[in-house]
Design goal:
By secondary structure, the protein is of the alpha+beta class. Helices cover 47% and strands 16% of the residues. The chain is built from 13 helices and ten strands. The strands form three sheets. A six-stranded mixed sheet has the order 1-10-9-4-5-6. Strands 2-3 form a two-stranded antiparallel ribbon. A two-stranded antiparallel sheet has the order 7-8. About 11% of the residues have low confidence.
Length: 266
Amino acid sequence: MDQARNAARRRLTLHTHPHPLGRRGFLPSPCVGTLSKSDFLMSQHAALTQDLDALRAHYAVHMPADIATAMVRADTELAASGIVDRALKAGQFAPDFAAPAADGTPVRLSRALRDGAVILSFYRGDWCPYCNLELRAYAALADQMQGAGVRLIAVSPQDPDQSVQAANTDPYPFSVLRDSGSKIAQAFGIAFDLADELRPLYARLGHALPDMNGADWILPIPATYVIAPNGEIVLAFIDTDYRRRLDPADAIAAACRANLMRRKAA
């Protein structure tokens, strides 16, 4: 029992940097005008939670038993690997990076931060339905983020052709960058090699990662970082269970507070 509890603690970490402007989850109105953690934001959170739970329940019934068993085993090993402990946390500074968007336009983190806080979402790929649900939840909040001066940047190891295909079939109102060789994920300490046992099973499901990512089986933990304009990480959500995601309203709240701090310091 103790071993199971310890594994659960290792699997998930949510770090927030202490902030004088209020508790996590509250959107200060001076920062975003009329935007607050309103019924609309709460409804988006509820919709995402319900969709994630429904998807998990679907796969619990329909996933072939041998694949489900192997995934549980691999999840347990990843949680025990210490990757969460090694990942970047709140209070540390995000490494700068530049990567191409789906249309080839380069995007640099430090340049984006000049305009305000950034929510950085690590996206396994368009083959991951949990990732797609999360990005669609953020897409539904695009107007609210723009009004708050908050930018979302998603980072994926998918190759450019796959990324373009994803953009054409399900466009998002934000940048989805190509992390070639998972170098950005490695810099944040969240990249890992998919377990050998899972590789033929992923291929069997149509998710042969070398075909999508270009020669490797590396994936990022689908972590979310909120990065202040000065480059400091103010919130880090890191969970080896890819079925769990940060509430977008909490990410927007943390980004909004970071923007307000910059204005108060100016």
